[in-house]
Amino acid sequence: MSIILPRARLGVVLSAGNWPVETYFRGYAPPTLGIHVTRMRMGSGGGRPADEVERDVLAGCALVAEAGMDLIDLQATGIAMDRGPDGEAALVRAMTEATGVPAYTATQAVVEALRLLGMRRLVTIGPYGTAAAARETAYLEACGFSIADAVGLDLGDHSAAVPPEGWVAAAREHDRADADGFFFSGSDTRMLEAIATVERALGKPAVTSVQAALWAATRRLARKIGEFDPSPDLGRLFAAHEARRPARPAPRPGC
What is the pTM of this model? Predict the structure, then answer.
C-alpha cells in the first residue's frame, strides 16, 4: 500500500451532527491535501448567543491549529449568515488572530465561486424553512447578488437523507429563465452529488457550500498542493481555468 503524505493541511470546523462534509472533502480533495476535522455545537438560527457560538468556533480552530494547519475553514454557513458579511469578516479575523493560521468561511467561498462563474441573479435552494431562506437572501443581497427565487424545503433533521435526485428535481421545478444559476445551501446534505447533473440538464452553473469551500482551499493552497485533476462531479467551478492557477493572495474577508 502506497501512502501519499499531504503537502498542505486544511483544518475544518463544522457542526457536530454533520457527516457529509468530511466524507466529500476527503473523497474529492487532491491526495496532497490533508483534511483535518473538528466539531462544535450547532450555532445558527439564533438559538444560542453569538458570543457563545464564537467561543466554540475559536475553540475548534485552536484544536485543529495544534496539528499544524496551513488554512482553516469554518464550514457553518448559518453562523456566518446570521452575522452578515461584516460580522462574518470580524469572526474570520478573530479566527486568524487566535491561531496565527489564515482562515475563511464556506460562505465567503460561495461568494468567490458565484463571482468567478458570473452568477449575479440566483435561485437558492435549501433544506430548511422560510427563516433560513430569508437569512440567506439577506446575506447574498448584501454581497451584491439578486435572488430570483429563495426555496426553503423545510426538511427538518432529514436533509442528509434526501438523495441527489431529490436536489436535481428541486432545481428542475424551481428553474427560472431570469436566473444565472443555482446556489444550493446546506452542508449537511448530498447536494454536491447533484451538481454535475443539474448543470448538464439545465445548462446553468450550480454552487454548493461544500463544493465551494473545498475549491477555495485548493485555490489558496495551490502552490503547495500542485497540479491535480478534479472530479467532473465537482462541476463547472472546478473546471474553471482559475481553479488550477497558482493561488493569489486570499481575498480580504467580507463581500
Answer: 0.91
